Amino acid sequence: MNKLLIFLCLLLVSVDVKADSNRIEISEDGHQAFVIDDNNSEPNSTFTTDVVPYNLTPDWSCALRMQVGGLDTGDLDGDADIDLTVGCYQSESYPPYPDCRNFILFNEGNHLQAMPAWWTEDSSSTTEVRVADLNNDGFPDIFSANGGFAMSPSTIYYYDESESINPHAGWYSDDNCWSTGAAVWDFDNDGDMDVATSNQGVYPDSDRPVYVFINDDGEMPTAPSWSSADEALSGGVAWGDYNDDGWYDLAVSKWVNWYSCVYRNNEGSLGQAAVWLADNDDMQKGVGWSDINGDYFPEPAFGGNSMPTQLYGNNEGVLSSSPIWESNDTFNGCQDLAWADVDGDGDEDLATVHFSNGHLRIYLNVDGQLETSPSWQYDSPASGTALTFGDINGDEAIDLIMGVSGADCINVFYNLGQSSVKDDSSLPKQTSLRGNYPNPFNAETRISFHLDKPSNTRIEIFDLQGKLVNILADNYYNAGHYSVTWAGTDDDGNSVATGMYFYRLETDSESITRRMVLLK
CA torsion, points 483, 487, 493, 499, in degrees to nearest 10? Predict the structure, then answer.
């Protein structure tokens, strides 16, 4: 019996566990079921190192009992702090979850509100949410990737004239699929944000293409504008410019019997056939890009479900045929992954969350190499479903946010500040300009740079026409690691328009430019 048939049989099994001490949690894509004994559900967080600046238990939790499918951060009410959008899914979990509406937890200065003040009016099974200005009006909207066994269409909730997000969807997809993930990026560089979705169907018609909805000056088509040539069960999408040509390519994680892959962007035309394939067809869920070694060529990571999470190398635009890194943990069941510079050393670290055992893990990037064993861990009593990062308490340090299926459905770990132990105690080996985080962003973003020797240094922001927008740094710096923050304003403090911008590091001997996208 092949792996696909085993998987489909598992979906059809009815688990009848009704004892008071047990509950059944089913994942957002229907691929995993897990029985939880509530008599033995204390979190286990006995392990950490002194270089990851998070406490061992959550600093804040939302007490709601929901099944969280997706998380995203952004300033949704224009008050210059980070709010949290939460997408919720529907399943046959037991006891049942009667409510699967999406909601927003607004920031009340330095913490999220205890209970949501905003809910969607409709209920769909949501696997991912993304915050972006999708109609080019200068305000953030919410894309909700939907599906479930009803294969509900994906939706967009627009910011409207009431100066808030409308709880009624203003757009519905026409794609007949169960979307399992979404990624937003202006992949054709025309000034508006496009949306890619990973997808599956429902047995026996289980396979679907990957789709892209190509935005036309703020008008999002209801039918996909692009589809991959292959059909599969896919479990996540992420945009990244793997060959540093200025055009973002699309990475996709795929489930059993299909190969995770990358579709190349040829100057705004996305190839329908994959240009690169992973070296295995095991179960992978979650995908993300990061330039871990600072050479401007990002590496793709794929979450492992029946296997370790894997990172593939990138040698100046040539992706490796086999992984250069694999996680070494006691269990492999990744449901989501995300990159962020959690320890403030200028390079991005990897976080993963596992469904069946609620394991939340961080693997530090130490001088361009990920640690193989977890550098920090939290073992939730609930099933882990989603994660993201954002500065919730406004201290300019990146906080960690975890979503689960169960009570206390959102958990926030506040960043305690830059780690007490540097990844690299020596001075930088070369001058470099790191990728900004977050990117895209809609409130503020941090730009890190390293100087290998003392120099006059400028950090400048330019728009697509090459006009100087802002100067973030203009001074003499000693050799070392530095960062500056841009809040999306010009030199006079006025907010600038949504779109792509360039940031440039100028020293006495170097000039380095990178790209970022501002969303509102």
Answer: 120
Spatial CB neighbours of 108, under 8 Å, sequence gap ≥ 6:
none
Q: Token pair for residue 189? A: 């560089």
> DSSP code of 427?
P
Q: Which residues contact 146 (CB under 8 A, 6 or more apart)?
A: 124, 125, 126, 127, 152, 153, 154, 155, 173, 179
Average pLDDT of each block of 10 consecutive residues along the chain (520 residues)?
42 42 80 70 51 93 98 92 96 94 96 96 96 93 97 96 92 97 95 96 96 97 98 97 95 95 97 97 95 92 94 98 95 94 89 94 94 95 96 92 97 79 59 84 86 94 93 93 90 89 94 86
Q: Side-chain half-sphere of 509: how many Cα atoms within 13 Å?
A: 8
Question: Containing H/E element for 64?
Answer: none
Question: How far, in Å, CA of 431 to CA of 479, rounded?
Answer: 9
**b/e code 407-440 from CB counts within 10 Å (16+ = b):** ebbbbbbbbeebbeeebeeeebeebbbbbbbbbb
What is the b/e burial string over 112-135, where b = at least 16 CB atoms within 10 angstroms of the residue's CB? beeebebebebbbbbbbbbbbbbb
- What is the per-residue pLDDT for 418? 55
Cα(275)–Cα(498) distance, integer angstroms: 31
Q: What is the C-alpha to C-alpha distance for residues 486 and 488, in angstroms, rounded to an integer?
A: 6
Beta strands per DSSP E along 170-317: 171-172, 178-185, 194-200, 211-213, 226-227, 234-240, 249-254, 261-263, 265-266, 269-270, 276-277, 284-290, 299-304, 310-315
pLDDT of residue 424: 45
Which residue is it, tokens 């406004």?
Answer: 394
pLDDT of residue 45: 52
417, 398 contact by CB (below 8 A): no
Paired sense of beta strands 499-506 and 511-518, if any:
antiparallel
Rounded Cα distance between 74 and 130, Å, is 9
How confident is the model at residue 124, as a pLDDT? 94
Contact between 473 and 484 under an 8 Å Cβ cutoff? The reply is: yes
C-alpha 13: how far from chain center: 31
**166: DSSP letter:** -
Residue 489, classified by CB atoms within 10 Å of its CB into exposed (0-12), middle (13-18) or buried (19+), is middle
Token pair, residue 441, equals 């962003």
| Contact assessment for residue 402 and residue 384, using Cβ atoms and an 8 Å cutoff | yes
CB–CB of 447/472 below 8 Å?
yes
- E strands of 107-248, at which residues? 118-119, 126-132, 141-146, 155-157, 171-172, 178-185, 194-200, 211-213, 226-227, 234-240
Sheet of 511-518, strand order: 468-477, 455-462, 499-506, 511-518
pLDDT of residue 373: 94
For residue 495, which of 9, 75, 19, 29 has the smallest C-alpha distance?
75
Closest CA to 26 of 34, 16, 15, 18: 34
